[in-house]
Write a structure and sequence with these properties.
The complex is a heterotrimer of chains A (about 280), B (about 290) and C (about 290). Chain A is an alpha/beta fold and about 280 residues long. Chain A has ten helices and ten strands. The longest helix of chain A is centred in the middle third of the chain and has 14 residues. A two-stranded antiparallel sheet of chain B has the order 1-2. In chain B, helix 7 runs antiparallel to helix 8. Chain C has eleven helices and two strands; from the N terminus they run ααββααααααααα. The termini of chain C are far apart. In chain C, a hairpin with a 4-residue loop joins strand 1 and strand 2. Classes of the chains: A alpha/beta (about 280), B mainly alpha (about 290), C mainly alpha (about 290). Chains in contact: A-B, A-C, B-C. At the B-C interface, helix 1, helix 3, helix 4, helix 5 and helix 6 of B face helix 1, helix 3, helix 4, helix 5 and helix 6 of C.
Chain lengths: ~280, ~290, ~290
Amino acid sequence: MRPPTPTPGTQPWVPLEERPACYAPNPFIEVEQLSLHYGQKPAFHNVTLSINKGYITALVGPSGCGKTSFLTSLNRLTDIIPGCRVAGRIRLDGLDVLAPHTDVIRLRRRVGMIFQKPNPFPLSILKNLEFPLREHGLKDREQIAASIETVLHDVGLWDEVKDRLHSPALALSGGQQQRLCMARALVLSPEVLLMDEPCSALDPLSSGVVEDLIVGLRGRYTVLIVTHNLAQARRIADYAALFWVQNGAGQLIESGTAKQIFEEPRDPLTAAYVSGMRG
Amino acid sequence: MISSGSNTLSRWPTDRLLLWSLRGVATIAGAIVLLIVVFLVMEALPALRHVGVARFFTDPSWHPTEGFYNLTPMLWGTLFAMVGSVLIATPLGILSAVFCRYYAPPAVAQLYRKLIELLAGIPSVVYGFWGLVVLVPLIGAINPPGPSLLAGIIIVAIMILPTIALMADASLTNVPQQYMRGAAALGLSRWATIRGIVFPAAKSGLFTGVILETGRAIGETMAILMVCGNVVQTPHSLFDPIRTLTANIALEMAYALGDHRAALFVSGLVLMAMIASLVAAADWISRGRIYG
Amino acid sequence: MAKTLERTFDGRELFASTLVWSAAVLVTGTFCWLLGDILWHGLNQISWTFLTTPPRNAGREGGIGPIIVSTALILSVCLGVSLPIGVGTAVLLAEFTTDESLFGRLTRRSLDVLSGVPSIVFGLFGNAFFCKTLGLGFSILSGGLTLACMVLPILIRSTEEGFRSVPTGYRLSAAALGLSRTTTLVHLLLPAAVPGLLVGLVLGVGRAIAETAALIFTSGYVDRMPGSLLDSGRALSIHIFDLSMNVSGGDAHAYASALVLVVLLLAINGTASWLAEHWLHRRIVTV
């Protein structure tokens, strides 16, 4: 928690370097010493990372480094994976995510997730969006309709589906399905969006559309995106973090602003990866 | 499977011999159903000719000795028993499958599933026997006489429950994991996920299960025979004894002659017609349900 | 929307949980009652004597020796007839017909319909065809043949599955080596498809033993030791039926016979499940 800004004349004088920074971005998610095991196998070990609010943070690295596992631990989706153990601390807006008394349902309303393979429910397009809204307590029909229309506009699907809202969602193309999944995540007004390689299962055209969408989310949502595609990461990320397998488990090698990671990496491994010499 | 018409047959003579003997054998297998229908019709013809189709539904009662052949009371018996048992077994069976997959701890789920599989294998005569010695006296104590439509409904419900439970379990298992993960990521609670996503996803399997169990309920003979009392009457209350078409055949076949025997074959044809229309209705309903 | 993450109470979830658990408890309770009842009343009657001596006094005393023999004979006839026909048909459907061939589709359709026919109708058919038309009368042969018709769809379906699970690579390699289809079939495919066949066999046996309605008018009621396949013989399921419905005071032995039948069926279905899971690596639904 930030200390309150002192009003002039009422508080004792605080040295300049101790006053709260007014331009540096605020961490919204703070991860401390996070480790995850599937049974005996470690997925990643002792990851400490801060995710800043309102920006797009890319998690990069070759496959198998624990990036996806890291993502799923943030919204406690690891709870439904049998044999999965998470240790460490995750704070979301100051609140402890991993505490046993935390309501995961509330957590997952604030933290949305989009998967690699589009997974709309086997219901109509409308139902896909309406069902989560109703389940989270929204009853007013007009509000629901308004929310649905808004998110469909946001993801650019409105014109394509407005005449067939009752047709099955599974009849949409891959790119449309992924955008529908994004709309479904957005309709709950989350604060954080976790995206696990959202474009990798799509054709290049749809991939471009989805990528533009993600860029448009900057400033309104905190986005954490796992991607294999370095070029994509360069294009869209504000912050980046490199994962690599060392000592049998995924490790966080380096994190920082995108400019720093891609152009002035401190770690030689990072330098090798971003220049394409390794990975 | 490799497609192989006869033009891909090699020159080996044994292959040709093999193919033709296999074809012969398969023809026998395929012809059995036709044979059944043919023989049923052949044996039923005398009654259809002497008695005429209309009288099977309009005669005053079922009294073969006096020449009355009304099947309707027994049709009602069959229908009521079928509807009642399906209404009880379907929710219990589906909930059982939901229990196994989503609510029970893994060890309990294993045991429960084994229990249901065990029960799928118990023969109808054993169910009927238990119904006769345990259930019927119990019902008789509440509302005499014991043998009744209610006893039949309960016993048949117990018998067909494993059918729907196991089919439902198979369908629930086939629901793709990605739906469950998607639902979890949206913060949907367990029952909401099951109700709103799993059931629609498993729709066709559940539907097949209901059709299978209904077919089984229609065709059930021994257990119904043993607990229903076998009085030929249209039931007006759950506690009335009834006789179903199947039980009727089993009871009277032993001593039926001439037109009476032929009339029993007619009721056999009616049973076949009921099952055929059930399957046809199922086909027609499921045709419109590709995506849902 | 509250910015906290504290747990809240969801009434609907509680209701659903209660419903689901109640259903499970109800079902388990009913079945335990049923099985327990049979075990309780039947166990003390079972003995070696019971299993080998003939019934006396209409079955109230004595045992079920000849009945077990009759049951075994009916079963043998059933399997002896249905195995060759079933395996042959399965081979044809799996190996020699395409998905579009008319013959294949018709055969499959008719087998599907066959599997839905009620057992009493099989009884009628068996009586009309085997007993009357073929002149076999009430006999073990008639009963066995009727059961063979009932069991065929199950056997064929499972054997076909067994053949489909054999990797295509086998057939391609054999063809590349110039082997005849017959050789390929007998030496390569059949052995590999044996698990599916066994599962179908065991399932079929389970279905056959449990059958009553189809046997009443085909194999008859006689409870003496059968002398030949043309003699009438009483199957175990029919014995239970007779004792409970037609013989007053026959309940005790009916319980014992029911217990024997249930144990037999458990063993059979258990074997089928085990075979399927370990050899075929899939679960089967024994309905």
